[in-house]
Amino acid sequence: MNHKRTVVSALLTLALAAPLSLAGTDSLWIHVRVQDHGPKSERVNVNIPVSMIETMAPMLSEMEFDTGSMKVGKDDLDAVKLREMWKALRNAEEGEYVTIDSVDQSVRVMKSGDLLLVKAKETGAKNSDVTVKLPLSVVDALLSGEGDQLNFTAAIKALKARGAGELVNVNDDDSVVRIWIDDSNSGQ
Amino acid sequence: MTPIADSNRAPRMGNAAKVFLTLTIIFAAVVVASTLAIGAVTYRAGIARISVHDKSADGVRISLGVPMILLEATLPLMPRPDMGPASEEAARWWPVLEAACVGLEDAPEGVYVEVDDDDDHVRIAKEGSSFVIDVDSDDATIHVSVPVRSFQAVLRHFEPRRGRAIV
């Protein structure tokens, strides 16, 4: 009897919690904060509902971008090559994959948990610290398009499904930039 | 027995008077219905509000409310700006802008953009069904409130066409 009651209570809790969790992902906001340390000390806050970006995503996926490839070193890297590289990285184990060290610069690309982490540090004449946290599921979704197309619709859906989290953090001598997702409309 | 004269009975209305009364009632009904219809359409389309306060010594205050139905009606008369070579690029991005407008209509309320520096404060927000822009600078205070619903009509009118300059 007690066992039955426990199962019923668990099912009731799940039934009540499911709409609440769905409501949470529906009201996600992407926030961008830019704090300039210049003479005018400018501060820019941008808060955009993810649902709004979701309506724009199909249009972005349909667009033909002139820059269908990006330059990495001497080679052009198009979506097809990028997809192959991503497949290899995706199937690999966790760890550091790219390490670039010079006198005043260091770049690390690593796979950690469900994130692809990019960390870049610059010292010397200009100090900067950049951290990019890309959820693997989002990159998977973005590269799920065909040919040269990037699937923005799937990427936004994956971002939404992942929920709150930090995406980009840039800290240099002139400014601080932060991009993250949470369920508050002010990002406070 | 003399017949009793019915002194209380109202005098009979002539045919001309009846026609006149019927026409008057129809006219009044049409006027009331049209006023209600115009009111409903105006309310549905919303009102754009603009207020400017010049902070200088002899500064003026301007406050204006424009029914969006009026703006939408006059849209076809408005000339399209010539974007020149940029029209091709603008045309590519137009569907994204239109999709953003659709998304904005259903998007939740909140402050979307806020820019602060030593002199100015700019705030762009969605409040209810309106898109609100507030600018507070040393020189002036500006408040613009536009119903989000009207954005699509405005964008559709100003949509640049590919392959030719717009005049």
How would you describe this protein?
The complex is a heterodimer of chains A (188) and B (167). Chain A is an alpha+beta fold and 188 residues long. Chain A has 5 helices and 10 strands. In chain A, helix 2 runs antiparallel to helix 5 and helix 4 runs antiparallel to helix 5. By secondary structure, chain B is an alpha+beta fold. Chain B contains 4 helices and 6 strands, in the order αββααββββα. In chain B, helix 3 runs antiparallel to helix 4. The chains are: A alpha+beta (188), B alpha+beta (167).
Main attributes of the structure:
heterodimer; A: 188 residues; alpha+beta; 8-stranded antiparallel beta sheet; two-stranded antiparallel sheet; globular; B: 167 residues; 6 strands
Count the E strands of chain B: 6
Largest sheet of chain A: 8 strands, antiparallel
Strand order of the largest sheet of chain A: 2-1-10-9-8-7-6-5
Strand content of chain B: 25-35%
Query: What form of chain A results from the Cα inertia axes?
Result: globular
Question: What is the makeup of the main sheet of chain B?
Answer: 6 strands, antiparallel
Oligomer: heterodimer
Can you give the helix content of chain B as a percent range?
40-55%
Structural class assignment of chain B: alpha+beta
Helical amount of chain A: 25-40%
Query: Helical stretch count of chain A?
Result: 5
Helix segment tally of chain B? 4
Tell me the greatest interface: A-B, 25 and 24 residues
Helix/strand/pairing category of chain A: alpha+beta
Give the H and E element order of chain A.
HEEHEEHEEEEHHEE
The portion of residues forming beta strands of chain A comes to 35-45%
Mean pLDDT of chain A: 80
Give the low-confidence spans of chain A. 11-24
How many distinct beta strands of chain A? Answer: 10
